[in-house]
Amino acid sequence: MELVNLKDSSDTASFAEAVKRGLGKNQGLYFPEHIPTLDNIDELLEKPFVERSIEVLRALIGDELNNGELEEIVQTAFAFGAPVEQVNDNVYCLELFHGPTLAFKDFGGRFMAQTLSRISEGKPITILTATSGDTGAAVAHAFHGIDNINVVILFPKGKISALQEKLFTTLGGNIHTVAVESDFDACQSLVKTAFDDPDVREGLHLNSANSINISRLLAQVCYYFEAVSQLPKEKRDQLVISVPSGNFGNLTAGMIAKSLGLPIKRFIAATNLNDTVPRYLKTGEWDPKTTVATMSNAMDVSQPNNWPRIEALIERGYIDKACLKGEMVDEEYTQLAMRQLAQQGYTSEPHAAIAYRAVSHDLEDGEIGLFLGTAHPAKFRETVENVLGNPISLPKALADVAGEDSLAVDLPASYDALKQHMMDLLK
Ligand SMILES: *Cc1c(COP(=O)(O)O)cnc(C)c1O
């Protein structure tokens, strides 16, 4: 697989290089030089998840990982399913929260951890990543206990749910967590600064594991195929997919799946009040505002870092711009959508509810809607219980960590403080 830096076309990388580097020169994102078209989609859709995913990834990655390696990686990483649940006559939910940390980020995190531990051949690596909640947990669990890989996770102090925080701050060992006294965008910018600092980048062999890393995106492509395989055949070509979006990794993966030939009619980019993209799609003006805190905090992002990849998919002719619509759902309508879902017998959480609202509102005659269930409702228990007025029970993964102590260290949003901390910890 050949990848090219979207900010500097002279900076190219193989799959292994792009996975190790994370970001390219000038903080540019790596993007596939060429996305193939698969001519055996129907046949692929008949296959089981793991087997099909190996074939899809083989088509994208090529022969850089040998067959045995790719098989092992996928089998270990995708050890749980992604079931489609029907919510009403024409709307379905793709449940991506059946992994160890109960959110879709388990797919990308685990695939990346397995890939990296194979391609780095035992050399020490430091993963540095910013999280608004779920990435941290997924990355921490995916890398916990892997030899020669240390993980440093930054998160905005007090801005993610207590339970969510416990999922990644209680592991210890090779997992180091930092509570930054600011918001998610500040965490993200500290990560970017660290990657620009040669002392830290070379000295600690930095690697980013957030949705910037190409391996995470490729893993996510696979569950879009899994979704289509479970939908009624006669409706497949009328499919509208609504993606609850923050950094837009999930939507990028869906668009790569469509570029490969998967029958997806169009996409809806659903956001909360942090609506830079929906406004941009309407007005043509890129005008990020200050990030505001919402119930769907994993989407509290006003400068989505995967957006240049979506632009590239459109500019390079893989995706027709008319296939993408943006929709902002405010706090009131998010709650309304959660209640409407509950009335239909489906308990959901704010992120998925936003995508449900956007698609159920927008479907045209004959179309069917699929929204991504990006997290288990219990991950947002307090909010869900407040909105629905009913207690919900905790799955085992959450119940187990609820009583443990957080091992996170508090730091101000200062690069010098972060650098000092990392050098002390890891040098
Ligand atoms: C990360 C996350 C999102 C946003 O996904 P992006 O790929 O960053 O757009 C949505 N919902 C939940 C629950 C998440 O954890």
Question: What CATH architecture of the domain at 81-102 and 214-388 would you give?
Answer: 3-Layer(aba) Sandwich
CATH C-level name of the domain at 81-102 and 214-388:
Alpha Beta
The name CATH uses for the topology of the domain at 81-102 and 214-388 is Rossmann fold
What structural category arises from helix and sheet content? alpha/beta
Give the ligands present: pyridoxal-5'-phosphate
Shape: globular
Short description:
GO terms for molecular function: pyridoxal phosphate binding; threonine synthase activity. With 427 residues, this protein is α/β, with parallel strands linked by helices. Helices cover 44% and strands 17% of the residues.
Please describe the structure with a list of short key phrases separated by commas or semicolons.
binds pyridoxal-5'-phosphate; Rossmann fold; globular; 14 strands; 427 residues; five-stranded parallel beta sheet; six-stranded mixed beta sheet
Can you offer a commentary on this structure?
The protein has 427 residues and is of the alpha/beta class. The protein has a domain at 81-102 and 214-388: Rossmann fold (3-Layer(aba) Sandwich), CATH 3.40.50. The chain contains 18 helices and 14 strands. The chain has a 6-stranded mixed β-sheet with strand order 4-5-13-10-11-12, sandwiched between helices. A 5-stranded parallel β-sheet has the order 9-6-7-8-14, with helices on both faces. The chain has a 3-stranded antiparallel β-sheet with strand order 2-1-3. A hairpin with a 2-residue loop joins β4 and β5. The protein starts with a strand and ends with a helix. Pyridoxal-5'-phosphate is lined by residues 103, 105, 133-134, 211, 244-250, 298-299, 351, 374-375. It catalyses: O-phospho-L-homoserine + H2O = L-threonine + phosphate. Keywords: Amino-acid biosynthesis, Lyase, Pyridoxal phosphate, Threonine biosynthesis. Belongs to the threonine synthase family.
